[in-house]
Amino acid sequence: MLQYNKEFKQLIEKSKNILIITHKSPDMDAFCSMIMTKKFIELGYPKMNVVMKARQTPTINIPCMKEIHVAKEIKEGDEDLIIIVDAGSMAQCLDYAKDNLQDTSKPIVVIDHHTETTNSKGDLVINEIRSSATEQVFATFKDIYGKNFRITPDIAQLTQYGIVADTGRFMYDSTTPDTLRVYADAKQVMDIDIEEMSYKFGKFPRESIPAVVSYLKTLQIEKDMAYVYINEEMIVKNGLTKQGVNEAQAFLRDKYIRFIQGVHWGFVLKPDFNYPDSWFVSFRSTKGYQDVGIIAKELGGGGHEYAAAAPLKAKTGEEALEKVLEAVHKIVI
Ligand SMILES: [Mn+2]
Fold first, then answer.
1. 167 CA distance to ligand 1 centroid (A)?
2. Exposed end of the chain (fewer CB within 10 Å): N or C?
């Protein structure tokens, strides 16, 4: 057994109550890896009390999602062990204004797959830079349980949902032969309908349509870069909702901006509704074109070559846009 998995096993065995949390605005991989961790622990340790806490449940139906405790605040409780999945640290999971779990002295295990993980002091980190936290959870418990490792139909489905989501249906570079082996093991137990899943994920609410229209009125194309933004005046004038603006942002960011003929990369700028004078820019690029990670870093944000983001402070949308363009022109000569 690998050393970190052995230490993880020992921490589980020393516990009676375990808490599992994941990053804010959880995606499919976050939910799947969280539920799988609970299910795997319960298989090996039926008396263990395992609690999952998040601020929301998944938008599509996945096995055992009802077991997630939806909590407004994540406070320290009677847990003896805290497991963080699909995130590198507490900071990515908590809202320091409301939560108090960050002050805990309980042992913390981090199960992650991101490359730029901020190392928290003293935490046990399990991260083999796999395709997804889902794949990492699967691999870790396979190592821990050895001969006794088994996959239930629920775990099988969660494994597939998590991997399909985080690899973009196996399109991203993060898909390795081992990812496909894990997937095959799960598929053999119980199959999921990938086409149906993609269709359900591709849906967007109608209320995002007026926001899409507002965004598109600002569309600018500079060489092979395109961008759109939205300001508070447009939001008020057109009666746009926060959710509509956020959904429109995600749609334009992932399915529109870099698919315009002649365009290979770009960004979408929106207000950060949680704080005053705060904005959020998201970049997307295409393999072989602009590395947007370095632009986001210039702005004090982070991310990868093809997907990156940064928070900004500005009084108006125009001022925020100017800041972004300044960073873009500094990096891209
Ligand atoms: Mn993930």
1. 9
2. C
231 Cα: distance to centroid of ligand 1 (angstroms): 30
Residues across the chain: 333
Q: Which pLDDT does position 290 carry in this prediction?
A: 97
Calculate how far, in angstroms, residue 29's C-alpha sits from the geometric centre of ligand 1: 5
For ligand 1, the distance from its centroid to the CA atom of residue 116, given in whole angstroms, is 12
Domains of the chain, earliest start first: 3-200 (3.90.1640.10), 209-331 (3.10.310.30)
CA-based end-to-end distance of the chain: 51
126 forms beta bridges with: 111
CA distance 268 to 281: 6
- Lowest mean pLDDT across 109-118, 149-158, 241-250: 109-118
CA–CA separation, 326 and 269 (whole Å): 14
